[in-house]
Specification:
Length: 954
């Protein structure tokens, strides 16, 4: 249903997806008639060849559903010296229809042999029958051919022996290394499977819908420990002193959540109020950095059990910091793996924003234990049901468990971040087709995470938190240990009542009784599925245009496109058939009431009950839409901000700043009007709002600086330092104050030092010298640490010293700060040295290469270097990272998307075309090209205005 609907509206996508799918080689040989596999006879040409030249009996990327796995017995023996593993498995399968082959996934594994037993064979201990194994690497599949047809409704046991090298990258069963305090390098073996890499560790039915139970055994040496999803039941000693750990059988789960690790790490543990044992593991020398994570995960696990009213179903939960990790963290059930910077907290070197990040990642991965692990999307096209929910739950859980982190104040930024992408034509619907592993990986993007979370937040605001909570509990309970799709969620949210309080419409009477009649009426009459389809099956974000005429408000909705103005010829076509059901909210000068309405049509008219001076739509920025005020609307709001900004709520002020600058990109508001709106910021009392305004001004600064537009750069620098002088000068260089006071300090001082503000440079230089003199022992306040290092890195002696300290530091929070500081050097040979070290992967780990290239590309002196490097070393980079993976996408967009000239656009276009010709294609290429075109247009249109505005402002 979802697919056909999308095809109808957005046929633009169809062409791409069809051509991007890897088409199997066609078989045109005569062998077919003599094939024993009679299933092929109908259409032999449709089947590809296996590696041995025989016909592979399956031609689709998705596995057949005639055979389904029930239980896996896995025995794994990694050798951390020879860096390989031998393994065996027994998969109990249920046959649903007669078949002569079993197809499953396997990638880069050497299959030694495979055999099959029927239930009867197992009962009478009859040995298995050896099976022929065919392999079709293009689809990462193997087929096991059985001599006699398997019979429906019977269970069989498939046994496979296999082996492989521990992988070099970050996927499957791979090796990771770390250095001890004593300088020794040690190796560990670790898994990372999502989305499609379990098949690199053991042959399996590697699709989320094939849930099964797993009984895992790991062989190891006595100097190591083994961890897996479940607690260890026992350890047995084998000949030669080898040990075998046997783990309890898991609950029913998808393959991408299986995990096992062999390492020599140590841990701290605690128990939740419901008796779950939580442990934090790290390499032995980092043990002291694990305590914050333990406190946070205990609190959060308690919270979620309570909030969902569902017990965490496993007896234990381990969180482990892995020295080499591609993404931020992975939610494997019972054994969550983290990049070190996402789990470890070092009070001496971790800043406030580091603490926020660690807490956020823990909250996110713990939420997955329900959203994702207990209830899983049917297919990767709906990955937002995992990632959007986990991102949304960060907000809900942290507001309660860590109110002092004031996480809520930052949520609007989650939405603003994705709006950048979603207001380009190359965006995609939240639920999107994904077939190949690369397409599946590309689904893990801001649209699934951020937009997913933002539309859930909008829906919660519309339904009320209690109704929404009841609905998701209903959904989680109903689909536990199963899979779900969008419609299941909408259905659960519309039928969430306990029997005692339901009404005929499905919404809970007890809820609606408490709210106003109009709101109850709105909620009870909305067709949730229909409404939410407009947000999940349709790409983009709506713009609500408001025009006030006396007491009447005329509303109009259209598709918001940044970089395209109404006068552009393509505007009309890009608007066709877009329509949302928008739950709009607004407040007015005459009362504190939040008014609500659902805008389902293109245009609508509302009547105000009283005369008002101003109207502000999208209360608290809870809605996923941009608002434009026609006529006097913006002027009224600017006047209001200047007179008394506190009459609007902080989140409304942040929304106004955001929307104003977005409207500039779409040619709906002039830049000077948006800049005028920021003039009140001198008096702004809310830090997140102030930071938002500053962010735009800084963005413009970086844009003109990179393009060497020196007059505007100088004047903007002057303006920033003069205008924000009061706030810069009042900052102390001490870790003190609330979270937002501390964030303000980091941001403002970083900007001031970047702009060469003498007092800032002087203080940072002083601290840096003291730190060097103390041989790195002096504790610098954590929130200014990165700034001090960056100023220090500007001299050769400082830079060299920082690089030495980088090698020695045991805190990855500190290492990140040093690496950033090193990347701000103005000397190209130093930047090149960093890239070389990153490519070598010893001093600077490969996992940090993407962030390094990103940082160098943001340095005006490094942008060309980073870009040239990526172009010239694409194949080397592809050997390190998968094409669609987070790091690779970060490298490509990080080194290109800030460009703003026609020549640069042309260069990037040519490069992407050459990649496409080599078979490397990513969806984000189009997004990047669109982003660059948008930058070019922005500068063409707004540079003269910016120049003029600065002249009258300084
Ligand atoms: N499930 C993801 C990990 C993942 C990412 C797997 C991409 C496959 C492809 C995990 O829950 C996640 O979302 N991690 C985030 C951190 C989170 C706090 C946003 C990450 O890795 O950045
Ligand atoms: Zn996630």
């Amino acid at each position: 249903m979802a697919n056909s609907c999308r095809k109808l509206i957005f046929n633009i996508y169809i062409g791409f997806y069809c051509s991007a799918v890897i088409m199997p080689q066609k078989c045109i040989c005569s062998q077919f008639t003599s094939s024993p596999i009679d299933e092929f006879n109908k259409d032999p040409e449709a089947f590809p060849f296996a590696t041995n030249g025989e016909i592979f009996p399956w031609h689709e990327l998705r596995l057949p559903t005639v055979v389904i796995p029930l239980h896996y017995d896995l025995l794994i023996h990694p050798n951390l010296t020879s860096l390989d593993f031998v393994a065996s498995e027994k998969i109990e399968v249920l046959v649903r229809d007669a078949t002569q082959f079993i197809v499953l996934h396997s990638k880069d594994l050497e299959i030694i042999n495979a055999s099959l037993q029927s239930e009867e064979d197992v009962r009478y201990r009859k040995p298995g029958e050896r099976l022929t194994v065919l392999s079709y690497p293009a689809h990462q599949q193997i087929a096991l051919l059985v001599p006699e047809k398997l019979r429906p409704d019977l269970r069989y046991s498939v046994a496979i022996d296999f082996q492989a090298k521990l992988a070099d990258g970050f996927e499957g069963f791979y090796k990771s290394t770390y250095r001890t305090l004593g300088g020794e390098t040690r190796t560990i073996a670790v898994t990372d499977f999502e989305p499609t890499e379990a098949r690199m560790a053991f042959p399996c039915f590697d699709e989320p819908l094939f849930k099964a139970n797993f009984s895992i055994k790991i062989r190891r040496e006595s100097r190591h420990i083994a961890l897996s999803n479940m607690p260890k039941v026992k350890t047995i000693e084998l000949e030669g002193g080898l040990l075998e750990d046997q783990f309890e059988t898991t609950v029913k789960m998808s393959t991408y959540l299986v995990a096992y690790i062999v390492c020599d790490f140590t841990s701290v543990s605690g128990t939740t109020s419901s008796g779950v044992k939580v442990s934090i593991y790290a390499s032995p020398d980092k043990w002291s950095q694990t305590h914050y994570a333990l406190e946070a995960s205990l609190k959060l696990l308690d919270f979620y059990e309570n909030y969902f009213d569902i017990h965490y179903p496993l007896p234990k939960l381990d969180l482990i910091a892995i020295p080499d990790f591609a993404s931020g963290a992975m939610e494997n059930w019972g054994l969550i793996t983290y990049r070190e910077t996402s789990l470890l907290f070092d009070p001496k070197t971790s800043s406030t924003s580091d603490k926020l990040w660690v807490t956020e990642v823990i909250a996110h991965e713990l939420a997955h234990q329900w959203f994702g692990n207990l209830v899983t999307m049917e297919w990767w096209n709906d990955i937002w049901l995992n990632e959007g929910f986990a991102t949304y739950m960060e907000l809900i859980s942290l507001n309660v468990t860590y109110p002092e982190l004031q996480f809520d104040d930052n949520f609007s930024n989650t939405c603003f971040e994705v709006i950048k992408r979603d207001s380009l034509n190359s965006s995609h619907p939240i639920s999107n087709q994904a077939k190949t592993p690369t397409q599946i990986q590309e689904m893990f993007d801001a649209v699934s995470y951020n937009k997913g979370a933002c539309i859930l937040n909008m829906l919660k605001d519309f339904l009320s938190e209690e109704t929404f909570r009841k609905g998701i509990i209903h959904y989680l309970k109903k689909f536990s240990y199963r899979n779900a799709k969008n419609d299941d969620l909408w259905h659960s949210l519309s039928n969430n009542c306990l029997e005692s309080d339901s009404t005929s419409s499905g919404f809970c009477y007890s809820d609606s009784k408490k709210t106003s009649n109009t709101l109850a009426f709105l909620r009870e009459n909305v067709e949730l599925k229909e409404m939410m389809a407009t947000w999940t099956l349709q790409k983009g974000i709506p713009l609500v245009v408001v025009k006030r005429e006396g007491r009447s408000l005329r509303l109009q909705q259209e598709r918001f496109l940044s970089g395209v103005s109404k006068e552009d010829p393509e505007w009309g076509t890009l608007q066709e058939r877009y329509l949302w059901h928008i739950p709009v909210t607004y407040s007015t000068s005459s009362s504190n009431v939040i008014h609500r309405h659902i805008l389902k049509l293109k245009t609508d008219t509302l009547n105000l009950s009283e005369k008002t001076n101003w109207v502000k739509f999208n209360v608290d920025s809870n809605g996923y839409y941009i608002v434009h005020y026609e006529g006097q609307g913006w002027d009224e709001l600017i006047t209001l901000l200047n007179q008394n900004h506190t009459l609007l709520r902080p989140k409304d002020r942040i929304g106004l700043i955001h929307d104003a600058f977005q409207l500039v990109s779409a040619g709906r508001l002039t830049l000077d009007k948006a800049l005028d709106l920021t003039r009140y910021l001198q008096h702004e009392t809310s830090v997140p709002t102030l930071l938002k305004g500053l962010e735009y001004l800084e963005l413009f600064y970086l844009m003109v600086e990179r393009r060497n537009i020196s007059d505007v750069t100088e004047n903007l620098k002057h303006y920033l330092l003069q205008y924000f002088k009061p706030v810069i000068d009042t900052q102390s260089w001490v870790d003190e104050g609330s979270v937002w006071d501390r964030m303000l300090r980091s941001t403002v001082l970083k900007l001031a030092c970047y702009l060469n503000h003498a007092p800032c440079i002087q203080k940072a230089t002083e601290l840096f010298s003291q730190w060097m003199e103390s041989s790195g022992k002096l504790n610098i306040p954590t929130d200014v640490l990165k700034i001090v290092y960056s100023v220090g890195a500007q001299t050769t002696a400082g830079w060299n010293y920082l690089l030495e300290q980088y090698e020695l530091s045991l805190s990855s929070a500190e290492k990140n700060k040093i690496l950033y500081a090193l990347s701000t050097s103005k000397h190209q040979e130093k930047l090149m040295k960093l890239i070389e070290l990153g490519m070598e992967g010893k001093v600077i780990k490969t996992q940090d290469l993407a962030a390094l290239l990103f940082a160098i590309a943001r340095n005006p002196k490094g942008q060309q270097l980073a870009w040239n490097f990526v172009k010239e070393n694409w194949t080397h980079l592809l050997k390190k990272f998968e094409l669609g993976s987070f790091p690779m996408r970060m490298i490509v967009s990080g080194t290109t998307s800030h460009f703003s000239s026609k020549d640069e656009l042309q260069e990037v276009k040519l490069f992407f075309e050459s990649l496409k010709a080599q078979g490397s294609h990513l969806d984000i290429f189009q997004t990047i090209l669109e982003a660059i075109s948008k930058n070019i247009k922005w500068l063409e249109k707004n540079l003269p205005t910016l120049r003029k505005w600065l002249l009258i402002s300084i």
